[in-house]
Amino acid sequence: MIENLPPGMILILGALLVPFLRGRVAGLYMLLLPVLGLAQLLALPDQYSLNLEFLGYELQPVRVDRLSRIFGIIFHLAAFLSVLYSLHVKDRIQQVSGLAYAGAGIGAVFAGDLITLFIYWELTAITSVFLIWASRTEKAHRAGLRYLVVQVLSGVLLLAGAIMHYEESGSLAFGHLGLGSTGTQLIFLGFGIKAAFPLLHNWLQDAYPQATPTGTVFLSAFTTKLSIYALARGYAGTDILIPIGAAMTAFPIFFAVLENDLRRVLAYSLNNQLGFMVVGVGIGTELALNGTAAHAFAHILYKALLFMTMGAVLHRTGTTKATDLGGLYKSMPWTTFFCLIGAASISAFPLFSGFVSKSMILTAAAEEHHLGAFLVLLFASAGVLHHSGIKIPFYGFFGHDRGLRTREAPLNMLLAMGCAAALCVGLGVWYEPLYALLPYAVDFEPYNVTHVVTQLQLLLFALAAFIFMYKVHLEPPEIRAIHLDTDWFYRRAGKRLALSLGASVQSLWAAVTGSALGVAGGLGAWVARVHRPGGPVGEPLPSGKSALWAALLLFAFLVLALLVSDI
Amino acid sequence: MEPHPPQNPPPPTGDEPGWPERPKNVRRLIALTIVLCVAAVAADLFYSKHGHYGFENITGFHALYGFFSYVGLVLIAGQLRKFLRREEDYYD
Amino acid sequence: MSIKPPMRMREKVLLRVASKAFIPLILLFALYVQFHGDFGPGGGFQAGVIFAAGFVLFGLIFGLEALQQVVPWSIVERAVALGLLVYGGVGVSCILRGGRFLDYGVLDHHSPMHGQHLGILIIELGVGLTVAATMLAIFYAMAGRGRA
Amino acid sequence: MSEHLSALIVVLPLLAAPVCLLLRQTRMVRAWTSIVAWACLCMALTLLERVHTGGVITYAMGGWDPPLGIEYRLDALNAYLLVIVTAIASVVFPSGVILTDTSLPEGKAHLYFAALLLCLAGLLGITSTGDLFNVFVFVEITSLSSYTLISLGKNRQALTAAFSYLVMGTIGGTFLLVGIGFLYQVTGTLNMNDLALRLPELLGSRTILAGFAFLMVGGSIKLAVFPLHQWLPNAYTHAPAAVSAFIAATATKVSYYLLARIIFTVFGAAFVFDALHLHWLLMPLAIAAMFAGSLAAVFQTDLKRLLAYSSIAQIGYMTLGLCMASETGLTGGIVHLFNHALMKGGLFLAVACVVMRTGSSSVNAISGLGRKMPLTMAAIVVGGLSLIGVPGTAGFISKWYLVVGALERGWYAVSVLILLSSLIAVVYVWRLVETAFFGVPEHEVCEVPWTSWLPTWILIGATLVFGIWTDVTVGGASAAARALLGVTP
């Protein structure tokens, strides 16, 4: 029985019972669900699959192997930590959707065919949007809708690609796909949207900071890492991923430097960390894939930890804007401490979890002689220190004391942060259990003198650079502002760009965008006018006119019939 | 470049500055960082590096790379801000 | 079309006397058409209309209230139902007697011809009942408009 | 007795209707109607089972053999339809919301139930008969009873809605009759199978072609194919909510059956699609319906109206399946017919529950009801997901077959359009979800009693069950598709 229940189902089905429970029982029950799920997963044999015939297609709803297992384990851990962190929340919608979302993410990881994958893929989109809407603000509402459209679009691309792939190859199995056909290219694009590839990334920075404090913790763990898993499964060793990943590591950090909202900073940093994994998938050697899996594992923990600390700040102060924060270490010492651990982990200081995983990817890049990617990753590693290692703790908890005096985070939040922090340090020191879980046999030692010294040099000098820049007042000040990103293209059409490009270009551009906007706006208005109640389609015609239509159609039929009546 | 906010606004609550806020301690932390930096570069002299690329074996390569990456990042970002900055209610 | 106030109709002696003489004849003729229907022109449909016409005439002359005392609405409604049930009941009884639905031949085991005859007669009766009742119902509905 | 089932399934509700007039008492009539519906369902299931094991069932009315007499002829397709229609009836009729939202005067409920039974009898009659003129008679029985039912809606507009439906319905019925007349004039027969045998030699005849055109347009009016759908939104909006549930879930389905029967059985796919290229006329209409219906649904402010426009879009999907004229495409169309009956029936019942509690069917009425009426709102959510075609729901299965069918024919653009129009459904469904769960409650209400939510959930639950367990629905639909195409299994 327990084997026949696909992993993730315990969480999805269990979530449906949550509304019927009250108080502590509900809390304990929700904590128990990920534990039970993990126990079920660990009880499954090492190589296991469940096959099913559906609509005449061979499906494989469950496929356990080493690659899916490690993602399954970390997803369960993340679900447990997220539930613990959000234990104080009374909102049933958040609880149900959070658990179901985690379950859908887990289910997707164990999907052995593209249809099952698609089903879970869309389920993650549908369940997670509630975590954004649960903020119940107008901004969150709009961001949630944009998020939903992008996520559903990614699923539709996946389905369309899967169907075309099936037409070409006759197989729906989700194994290595490559970029050989239009179908697999569509699937690649669908994965790419969810993995927040450069220029497709903006839904992430747009939506995550709008979610509830606890919702962001859930969101940070599953969606993007699911797509990293999917890329590792289907497109390992695809060269184009290396430049894509390198760009992903580099360009978000510029935005992170400028951004004022610290949760948005973390969203950019999330993007940057995904870049490391994408490069790892692109290199595609055993070492690189091990590094990707390990980095995803470590990353989920420290990123969740960082989002948790910012969530606690938001919970207590109502803001995460750098311009409003500062000096919180006095009121929230434990949160500060955990934040520093998270910062050290993401910056990959030796003895913290980021170090043991990121060095694998860097080494793999060097071994395969991807010089450009290697240098970019190195640059990005120094950049990580800026936004996540320094900016988050410094502006959030130290910096200028703005006189915010509040209480320490609630106990359940502290417990969750403590667990995550313990895991971050634990994996950095005692990394063998993690390495034992990796998809391939590991022949890699993170703590050799070269690794440690070079990493320390990189980080310490970057730190020195921070002090230097801060002292000479070259550090960009925190200001109340937002910075444009690709969402600008769909949130604000191209007029403004023209302003900085000179008058002649401006007028041309304005003409072009003006007419394009005019056409688009006109089309939108036309659709609305025609289909609104009272419009020609949205309101039934009087009988006379509909009778006229009937006559017209009869005429059409008769013409059609008479045209071919010489058969 | 934007005018800097005042470096040390008085804490509005008027309570004692905490340990990390006292200038003496800040100086100590900076000194510690410099010592660690020097130590890290000095360590390069005492073992044989195993970088994959030749340039990695230059003494202090990573230190320089880290320092200039950071400076470059911040300076470029500062320039980008001129183009990308908008008021907070830009999209509203 | 509105009906003129009944009081004035009732006052006209000629109409009252003539209709009193005609109504029984109309009903009798209806019955003739009804039972003659299986051999000659006629049948349940025509008979029902003629039958109802007799009552309508009564209603026109003596007023709606008087007619509704003779044939209350509930009777009309039940008669519609009953007629249909007679019709369908014959069909079902054919099945019960081992034939097909509406296979009158089986109604008389000795002579299918006689069975057919019997079947058509009962069915026409049902039709006549329903049609007459429906006509009256329509009349009630039209005449009752604007009163409630 | 059992060989008479194919006649009894029509006769029983037909004769049960007058019995309502004799019973009169509302409670007894309600119970009677439910029992009749359940009995019909049992008969339909038996018939379906028998068709699948023993092949086509024919029944000669009154012992007169076809083609002279009226023949009832059941194959995999009509047996499947009978099950759908009776299943919906046996869920809707006993429902606690059956009298909600009506303007019935005191003590007149028995007339309403009699009309419901007549409507059921008409639908079952159209489905089972093998005689074209008999089809026309039952079409009229169905139409007349549904005009009555629609006019019983709570608002005064119900009367005008019923009247404009009457006008369009009469035009449709007349077109059917004219078409049947033309065919009879040339062939001298009304039996569909006999027609199918005689027609191939006469297909060049202009009378036949004109008859075909009249039949198509008449059927299209009844089915509410895109530009002829104008009667539908008002009728569904102003009818009593339970009547909308019943009619939306059954009447258009039966009209679809009729069109499919005329195209495939009487005239044959070879003539209609290969020679006449009908799909070049019908397919644009189907696609226009998918988009226009869904887009119009987005802008509606009334729940019933929203669902009505969504129905127009769904009819578009089914018609598209018809145009494909392949086994996969027809399977998709027919299985969508089944699934759409379930989800639209369930959704309209859920709306009836909303009307029962709030007295209004506007979209704002469900604002914030997610907490107050969780079961009803959950039903709307699940039904909506099924309308979109989210995997795990029945809607996904049918859209899957339609997409695959389009790909098989090489109509890649069409398959993309199916997916795109589903995205529009996301918009109107999420509007409901959001209003229900994130809106501010306007009404202080509580959940409806079990007699009302249980029927809703039977239908909605079925969309979930048939979203995963497809043996019965897809199996039945593909058997029906093969029967239409004349492929012997």
Please characterize this protein's 3D structure.
The complex is a heterotetramer of chains A (567), B (92), C (148) and D (489). Chain A has 567 residues and is an all-alpha fold. Chain A has three domains: 1-235, no CATH class; 236-492, no CATH class; 504-554, no CATH class. Chain A is built from 22 helices and three strands. Chain A has helices at residues 9-17, 23-43, 66-85, 92-109, 114-133, 138-169, 182-194, 202-207, 213-234, 241-258, 262-283, 286-317, 333-346, 353-367, 371-397, 411-429, 432-437, 449-471, 487-491, 495-499, 503-531, 543-563, and strands at 48-54, 57-64, 482-483. A two-stranded antiparallel ribbon of chain A has the order 1-2. The model of chain A is unreliable at 497-502 (pLDDT under 50). Chain B is an all-alpha fold and 92 residues long. Chain B has one domain (20-84). In chain B, 49% of the residues lie in helices and 2% in strands. The longest helix of chain B has 24 residues, at 61-84. Chain B is flat, with a radius of gyration of 20 Å. Chain B starts with 22 loop residues before the first helix and ends in a 6-residue tail after the last strand. Chain C has one domain (6-143). Chain C is 76% helix and 0% strand. Chain C has six helices and no strands. Chain C is mainly alpha-helical and 148 residues long. Chain D is 77% helix and 2% strand. Chain D has a two-stranded antiparallel ribbon. In chain D, helix 3 (76-92) packs across helix 20 (471-485), helix 10 runs parallel beside helix 13 (303-324) and helix 17 runs parallel beside helix 19. Chains A and D meet through helix 5, helix 6, helix 21 and helix 22 of A and helix 6, helix 8, helix 9, helix 12 and helix 17 of D.
What's this model, at a glance?
The complex is a heterotetramer of chains A (567), B (92), C (148) and D (489). With 92 residues, chain B is mainly alpha-helical. Helix content of chain B is 49%, strand content 2%.
Integer tally of domains of chain B = 1
Helix content of chain B: 40-55%
- Count of discrete alpha- or pi-helical segments spanning 4 or more residues of chain B: 2
For the sheet with most strands of chain D, the description reads: 2 strands, antiparallel
Beta-strand percentage range of chain B: under 5%
Let me know the average pLDDT of chain D: 88
Cα-to-Cα separation, first versus last residue of chain B? 26 Å
Cα-atom radius of gyration of chain B: 20 Å
CA gyration radius of chain D, whole angstroms: 21 Å
Quote the beta fraction of chain D. Answer: under 5%
Q: How many extended strands of chain B?
A: 1
State the helix count of chain D: 20
H/E element sequence of chain D: HHEEHHHHHHHHHHHHHHHHHH
Structural class of chain D: mainly alpha
- Unreliable parts of chain D: none
Mean pLDDT of chain B: 76
The parts of chain B where pLDDT drops under 50 for at least 5 residues are 1-11
State the assembly state of the protein chains: heterotetramer
Structural class of chain B: mainly alpha
